[in-house]
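In response to reviewer comment 3 from the previous cycle, which asked for concrete evidence that the modeling workflow produces usable outputs, we include below a single protein chain processed end to end. The sequence was submitted unchanged, and the resulting C-alpha cells are shown without manual editing.
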Amino acid sequence: MTLQILKFQPGIVKDITEYSAGKNGPFWVDGDLVRFRNGYPTKIGGWQKDTIYGLDTSGAQTDTEVTLQGVCRNMIPWRGLDGTDRIAIATDNHLYILENSLLYDVTPLRKTSTNLSNPIATSNGSTTVTITDNSHGAAVGDWVVLSDATATGGLTTDILNSYRGHQITAVATNTFTFTAPSAASSTVASGGGTGVDVEYLIGNAAGLGNQTGDPALGWGVGGWGESTWGTPRDASTDPDISLEGTEFSLSLWGEDLLATVREGTSYIWDLSDGTNTRATLVSAESGAGGVPTKSLVTSISFPDRHFVCAGSDPYVAASGASSGTLDPMLVRWSTQENFAVWGPTATNTAGDQRLQIGTKIIAMSSAREETIIATDEAIYGMTFVGAPFTFSFRLLASNCGALGINVMMNVDGDVYWMGKRNFFMYNGSVQEIPCPVQHYVFDRMQLNYVDKIIAAHNKKFKEVTWFYISESVEGAEPESDSYVTYNYSEQTWTIGSLGRTAWSDSFGFRTVPFAFDSDGYLYNHETGTSANGSAMNAHIESAPREMSESGENLFLVDKIIPDVTLTANTSLYVQLNTRKYPNATEITKGPFTITSSTTKLSTRAKGRQMSMKLYSSGTTDEWSLGDFRINSIKDSLR
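The workflow returned the following C-alpha cells.
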C-alpha cells in the first residue's frame, strides 16, 4: 500500500503524446477556463454583461439597451481633461464613443443631402422603405441616418429618424432601400415631408463594411448574385470586394481621437466639439497638406509625437499631395506636434522611409521610447533621433513577422506577438517564446481569418491572451471561439474556449478587464463566478502517469485525498481514467464530488497509468487546486 502525491508541472502541454507528458513532467494536458497561479490550477473569474444605452432622435438618453452595429475590432479607453472616462469603439462599419454607458455614433459622413422633398416610399404590409435621392453614390451595406422626416405609411418619426440609422439593402442610380423594424400600414409613393435630410456615413467606398476579408480573388469570390457568371472579381475595379476585412487603427492625440481605416484615410474626433459631433477628415483640418489617403496601420510615436502611417501612399512633391497608390512597405510620418502636415520641408520634420524585408507592413506597437513595426516577415525598431533624419530604423529580427493587425501587445514596454507559427517577445531583443501548445493552436486555427485574432492583456494575473477562430467554427462570417494564454510571470501556457473580438485591460473606473463579443455585447471580466449568469464549464486534465516507476505492475487506487481551496457553494468533480497500456481503452471511474467538507474519496480504479480530470459546471463555483494524494495497492492482472 502506497500513498502517492500527484504533483504536476504548471501549465498545459499538448505538443507531445499524453503518455510522454505523464512520464516527463508530469504535465497537465488539457483545460478550459483555468489559469495557473503560483504553479497551481485555479478557475478564472467570471464575466457579466455591461448594459449600454441608446439615444433617441434628439440625442437624449433612452432606457433602451443597445448593441454595437457591426463587430467590434478595436477600442481604446482614455480620460479627458474633464475627468470623464470614455471608450472609442471601432466596428467593421461604425465608429463610436461610449461615455457614461451611452453610445454615441461618431462615424464620419461621406455626404449629406438636405431638404429632400417627400423622398420616402412605402408599400402596405412591407418593411422595405425606398428613398429617392438623385446620384446618392451609396452602396449596399452602407448606413444612412434620416432627420426631420415626418411619419408616413404608418411608419413613425422615431422609426424613420432613428439615431442608429438604417443599413442600405439595395441601390439604383437615384434610389436606395432599407428595411424598417416594422411593416408599413399603407402604400405611399412620395412622403416624409419637404425638408428631409439624409446623412451618408462613410461606407464601402472608404473601406468600411467588410466584416470578413475575402481570402482570394477570382471566380466565385464575393456574395451570391454579385457580378456576372464566369467573370473573375477584381478588387481594383470592384468596390464591393476587399481582400481584407475592415479594421480601424485608433490613437490618442492628447484628449482627441485619431482613427484610420485600413487601406483608407485618417479622421479626427475632437473631444471639445462634443459627443454629438462626428469625426472628420484629417485632410480637412486647417493647414493640412499631403495627408496620406491610404494607410494600413497608424500609431503615435513617443515621446516626440509624430503621427505615423505604416503602409502608405507616397507624397508627391510636385502636386503637394499623396499619390493615392498604396505602398505596403512605406512608413510616413507627419511633422512633429501636427498630425495634419505631411509634406516634408526644410523647416519641418515630416518624412518617410521604405522598409525592405517583407511584402507589407502588418502591425505597429509602442515599446518604451521606440515604435515596433512588424511586416509579414520581419520586425523593425523606429526611434526618434532628431534632425536631420528625424527617425532611425533598425532591423531587429527576420522570420518573425506578425500574423495579424491586432496580434501585438505592449506590456510595460515589452511587446508580445503571434507570428505565423510561433510566439515572440521583444524586450530589447527579439526572442521566440517556447510554447508547449504551439502546434495545437496553429494546426487548429483557420488561417484565412488571422486578421480577426486579437491580443489581450490582463495585468492583474500577468497574462497575454490571443483569441482566434478554430476549425470547428463554420459559416461565411466566423468569429473567434478559442484562446491561448501566456503567463509572462510564471512562463506557463493555458488554452480554452471563449470568443472575444476586442479587449481592454482595466482602466479608470473600470477596475476589471472588459471586452466585446461578436454580437456586440460588452462584458466585464474577472467578475463573479458565472458566464453572465450561465454555468462556466471549467476543467483541467492531467497526463496519464505510471503508478510505478517501471510500469510493470497494475495498481488499484482505492482512495483520493484532495487538496483544494473552494467556496462553500462549490461542487468540484474528479474523474479517474486508467489504462493498462498507453494505447489501450481508457476506463473511467467517477465522477466523485468534492465539497468544502470533503476529506477523502473512496474509489476503485485499476491500471498501470492513471490520469485525473477535475471540473465544475455551476454558476457559483470557485476553486483552486493543490497537491492531491492517492492511495494505491499493487494488484494482479485479473
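Residues 235-242 have pLDDT under 50 and may be disordered. We consider this sufficient to address the reviewer's concern, and the full set will be provided in the supplementary archive.
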